[in-house]
Amino acid sequence: MKRRIPNLYGMIIILASLLLIAVGLLQGQFSDVLHKAVQICLECIGVG
Questions:
Q1: Which structural domain range is residue 15 located in?
Q2: pLDDT over threshold 70, residue 2
Q3: Number of folded domains that form the chain
Q4: How crowded is the C-beta side of 12, counted as CA atoms within 13 Å?
Q5: Average pLDDT for 2-6
Q6: Pairwise CA distance, residues 32 & 38, whole Å
Q7: Are 8 and 2 within 8 A, CB to CB?
Q8: Quick check: 43 and 37 in contact, CB under 8 A?
Q9: Distance between CA 45 and CA 28 in Å, rounded?
């Protein structure tokens, strides 16, 4: 019984994270994050 409680918490965290990822994708935030990541990467190597 003690082993099931941490598994339950883990499943709740995984489901919540998947839900938030889906909401972000539906709102079109993927392109914003990708654009910012590319800018940071280019600035890091000195191109941008």
A1: 4-45
A2: no
A3: 1
A4: 6
A5: 68
A6: 10
A7: no
A8: no
A9: 27
